[in-house]
């Protein structure tokens, strides 16, 4: 197991080196100039030249790349052109917001999606199944930003049930230790702060979680339906096992493998959805920061954040692979 | 379905439903309870972005200055509701006849928020600090205003052009600043937050101007100390800046206990947050949101315009090099229609490239009143009937001087096509594509752009536009460049005024572009907010606010 993990971690190295090169080329291929984005209407040719010199953008590209990689090897991801802050600091500060939102969305998708998919499979062809299949289809085809705007319009702007923006009411005095606001509220026993942060998560999490939820429903339904007709399920039934035991031990456990793969993939894809959701709800995570960085041609932030996300994505996939072994011992032995 | 699974699912659904109901109802009640009562309370204001630093010397953006204006004060302020200089930390000042020596008489009852005394030594410490800025901090992103207005630092490639000479503390309440060259806008410029007086004690303890980035030092993020009516409680990056009322403030003390500034970049999202009770006020209201907000009982406050929106013409793009074509375009525009179709109520049409409040403004300039027949005739004389002209305009942006560029473009396009010109529209994302194309290349024709003044100085408008040859305008007019240089070098505003009036006439005769309007920037507030005083140069300090 340890060898497997180490081998997978080692494989990440060439992936990240390749990605750093691609990212470097991509951000510089974007039209526009970070110095002009920084100085805005006040830009003058001299001013732009001075900023470019200060950030090394006047150097040849290969010099810039090697400077960048050299700094990376020393753990220095550079500083944002817009704010001057180290990229790592901004990432560490904002990543908890995205993780908090992503986990809530994923939790919603799994907790609602797996039972719904299971129920639909067990009631194939009936009204419940039709409703679940149609609903999930609608969920898959609804763009995240559209759903986010719609939810905000109905539940925040019109009904005023939920907040429209931010992660917490600015009037609440909250202590932040981990920057996971709900967790911080619970740790410091500031219940109103925890509650308020949870309330701020509701709409963004629903918007972000709907597509994964719909996909999980469909995969679970298909997987359970397939397993239900396996010989070992019939054997278990003929042995006189109770329906609950068959469901838990034989159907769900075997049907879960593709579902876990899907959950892993969706967890990674949540990052791309977060860019849109966080922007609509002014939710200050890495998604919104990335969106701003693209607008400002903030090369170091773009490169740093996307590299971090790639690392996190790879680690999630590794965890998914490890989870296979837990769910299905055959995978572990092979 | 097995009974046990059915039961569990049923239970889970019920719990989920109850939790959702409880969540939403509690959220509502909680927000209903928030907000300040009469006297005290927390004022929550939304800007469009976070500040870049809490040391205003290293900033040139409005969001940083919004926070700075609460914490810091300069020697000079502005008269309420105007851009004109007024006493603040200095009660008065004398200027020598040659315009090189400024003697400031200071208040004697002022302390910084760290209890250190504000006096002439503190003034000189600040001036000397700015002048001796390390070369690493002499880039336009960090020290734009000092470099632009004082022309250079003690060291670096612009040292020879620097106009600051020295500061002497004559006594505790008298500081004398000596310049090497006259700078008539000096007193007005001192009202800008970049030139706020900062505590020497705190600067020595927490600031490092030579740091890799002085905007991220301890001072710039956690320990800014000024003399203003609020002091910093905390800056939680990505969340909010929280300010506490300064109980030992020398002037009118704030009646609110706290002020919180949050960043919401989308104007519609700011309007939604106000309507939902999450904030008490916000800046840069989109014109489309004004009526709905007013209908819901929210207050709209307008600033007197201190800006100009213009239709620029790049003379490198033919036939815009022909004065008759430029005049034809000016005559083809119905500015009243442009304003009514795409600008907020209260917007004034523009006669020239400076707003009326600026020194040197004159109504005695060549006017190009809407006359489509004359426009057609001029085009005929120029042989440019049916000419195709590229028209660049930005998308995805709303600036105080250009609230709805797409709508403005559409009206102008229709008017130009009505006189026989063919328009080739080119839209670009504002930042950085549009600005790059207009200011950094010659690849553009007609274009929409503008400017909001920083302080009351004509050079801050005309000098920015026409002080030198630029790719935006694509012309060489040495006479105009020389006149602007001469005006900038005159020692007093009184001497500058007739020359700037002449330059405004000269510009409108030459017609490098068509000044269109001075749009009114708006702020919105909940009905509870009282006493907000809008300022054309955004010199808005919140000690006047109360929450009713």
Automatic annotation (TrEMBL), chain A:
One Pfam family of this chain: BPD_transp_1
Bilayer topology: Multi-pass membrane protein
Location(s) in or outside the cell: Cell membrane
Domain (ABC transmembrane type-1) ranges: 95-324
SUPFAM superfamilies: MetI-like
Transmembrane segments: 101-120, 132-155, 197-219, 255-276, 305-327
Keywords assigned by UniProt, alphabetized: Cell membrane, Membrane, Transmembrane, Transmembrane helix, Transport
Keyword Cytoplasm belongs to the record: no
Protein family per UniProt: Belongs to the binding-protein-dependent transport system permease family.
Protein name: ABC transporter permease
Phylogenetic lineage: Bacteria, Bacillati, Actinomycetota, Actinomycetes, Propionibacteriales
UniProtKB/TrEMBL annotation, chain B:
Keyword hit for rRNA-binding: no
Pfam families, per the entry: SBP_bac_5
Location in or out of the cell: Cell membrane
Record key words, sorted: Signal, Transport
UniProt domain Solute-binding protein family: residue ranges: 85-471
Gene3D superfamilies: Dipeptide-binding Protein, Domain 1, Dipeptide-binding Protein, Domain 3, Periplasmic binding protein-like II
Protein topology in the membrane: Lipid-anchor
Family matches, as CDD domains: PBP2_DppA_like (cd08493)
Domain of life: Bacteria
InterPro entries recorded: Peptide/Ni-bd (IPR030678), SBP_5 (IPR039424), SBP_5_CS (IPR023765), SBP_5_dom (IPR000914)
Leader peptide range in chain numbering: 1-27
Sequence similarity: Belongs to the bacterial solute-binding protein 5 family.
Protein name: ABC transporter substrate-binding protein
Species of provenance: Nocardioides koreensis
């Amino acid at each position: 197991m340890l060898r497997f993990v180490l081998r997978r971690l080692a494989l990440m190295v060439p992936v990240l080196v390749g990605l750093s090169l691609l990212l470097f080329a991509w951000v510089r291929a974007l039209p526009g100039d970070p110095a002009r984005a920084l100085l805005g209407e006040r830009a003058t040719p001299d001013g732009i030249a001075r900023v470019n010199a200060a950030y090394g953008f006047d150097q040849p590209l290969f010099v810039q790349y090697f400077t960048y990689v050299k700094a990376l090897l020393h753990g220095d991801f550079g500083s944002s052109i817009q704010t001057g802050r180290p990229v790592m600091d901004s990432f560490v500060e904002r990543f908890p917001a995205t993780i908090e939102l992503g986990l809530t969305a994923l939790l919603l998708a799994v907790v609602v999606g797996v039972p719904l998919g299971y129920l639909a499979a067990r009631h194939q062809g009936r009204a419940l199944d039709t409703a679940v299949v149609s609903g999930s289809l609608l969920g898959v085809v609804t763009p995240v930003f559209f759903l986010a705007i719609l939810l905000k319009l109905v539940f925040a702007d019109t009904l005023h049930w939920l907040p429209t923006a931010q992660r917490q009411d600015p009037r609440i005095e909250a202590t932040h230790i981990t920057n996971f606001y709900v967790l911080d509220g619970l740790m410091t026993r500031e219940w109103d702060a925890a509650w308020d942060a949870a309330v701020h998560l509701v709409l963004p999490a629903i918007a972000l979680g709907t597509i994964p939820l719909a996909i999980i429903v469909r995969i679970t339904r298909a997987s359970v339906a397939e397993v239900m007709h396996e010989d070992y399920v019939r054997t278990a039934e003929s042995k006189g096992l109770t329906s609950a035991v068959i469901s838990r031990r034989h159907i769900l456990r075997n049907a879960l493998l593709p579902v876990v793969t899907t959950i892993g993939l969706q967890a990674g894809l949540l990052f791309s959805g977060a860019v849109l959701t966080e922007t609509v709800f002014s939710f200050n995570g890495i998604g919104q920061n990335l969106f701003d960085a693209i607008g400002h041609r903030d090369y170091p932030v773009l490169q740093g954040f996307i590299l971090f996300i790639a690392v996190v994505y790879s680690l999630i996939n590794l965890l998914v692979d490890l989870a296979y072994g837990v769910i299905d011992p055959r995978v572990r032995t092979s | 379905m097995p009974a046990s699974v059915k039961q569990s699912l049923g239970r889970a659904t019920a719990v989920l439903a109850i939790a959702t109901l409880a969540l939403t109802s509690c959220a509502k009640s909680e927000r209903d309870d928030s907000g300040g009562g009469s006297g005290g309370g927390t004022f929550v204001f939304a800007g469009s972005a976070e500040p870049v630093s809490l040391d205003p010397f290293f900033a040139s953006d409005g969001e940083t200055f919004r926070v700075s204006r609460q914490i810091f004060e300069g020697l000079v302020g502005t008269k309420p509701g105007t851009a004109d200089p007024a006493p603040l930390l200095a009660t008065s000042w004398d200027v020598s006849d040659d315009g090189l020596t400024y003697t400031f008489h200071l208040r004697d009852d002022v302390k910084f928020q760290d209890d250190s005394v504000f006096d002439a030594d503190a003034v000189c410490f600040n001036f000397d600090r700015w002048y001796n800025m390390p070369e690493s901090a002499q880039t336009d992103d960090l020290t734009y205003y000092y470099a632009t207005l004082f022309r250079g630092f003690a060291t670096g490639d612009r040292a020879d052009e620097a106009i600051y000479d020295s500061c002497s503390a004559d006594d505790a309440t008298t500081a004398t600043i000596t310049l090497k060259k006259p700078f008539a806008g000096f007193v007005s410029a001192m009202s800008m937050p970049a030139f706020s007086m900062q505590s020497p004690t705190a600067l020595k303890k927490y600031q490092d101007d030579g740091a890799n980035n002085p905007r991220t030092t301890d001072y710039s993020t956690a320990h800014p100390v000024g003399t203003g009516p609020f002091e910093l409680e905390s800056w939680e990056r990505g969340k909010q800046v929280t300010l506490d009322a300064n109980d030992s403030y020398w002037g009118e003390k704030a009646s609110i206990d706290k002020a919180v500034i949050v960043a919401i970049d989308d104007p519609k999202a700011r309007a939604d947050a106000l309507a939902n009770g999450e904030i008490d006020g916000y800046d840069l209201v989109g014109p489309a949101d004004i009526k709905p907000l007013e209908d819901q009982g929210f207050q709209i406050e307008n600033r007197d315009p201190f800006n100009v929106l213009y239709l620029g013409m790049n003379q490198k793009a033919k036939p815009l090099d022909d004065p008759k074509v430029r005049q034809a375009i000016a005559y083809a525009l119905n500015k009243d229609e442009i304003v009514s179709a795409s600008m907020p109520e209260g917007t004034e049409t523009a006669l020239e490239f400076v707003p009326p409040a600026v020194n040197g403004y004159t109504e005695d300039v060549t006017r190009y009143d809407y006359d489509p027949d004359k426009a057609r005739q001029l085009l005929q004389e120029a042989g440019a009937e049916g000419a195709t002209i590229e028209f660049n305009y930005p998308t995805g942006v709303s600036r105080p001087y250009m609230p709805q560029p797409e709508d403005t473009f559409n009206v102008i396009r229709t008017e130009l096509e009505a006189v026989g010109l063919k328009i080739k529209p080119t839209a670009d994302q504002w930042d950085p594509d549009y600005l790059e194309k207009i200011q950094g290349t010659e690849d553009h024709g007609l274009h929409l752009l503008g400017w909001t003044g920083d302080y009351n100085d004509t050079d801050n408008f005309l000098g920015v536009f026409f002080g030198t040859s630029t790719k935006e305008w694509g012309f060489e007019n040495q006479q105009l460049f020389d006149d602007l240089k001469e005006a900038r070098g005159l020692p007093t505003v009184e001497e500058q005024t007739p020359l700037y009036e002449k330059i405004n006439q000269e510009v409108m005769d030459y017609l490098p572009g068509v000044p269109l309007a001075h749009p009114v920037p708006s702020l919105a507030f909940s009905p509870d907010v009282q006493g907000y005083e809008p300022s054309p140069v955004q010199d808005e300090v919140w000690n006047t606010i109360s929450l009713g």
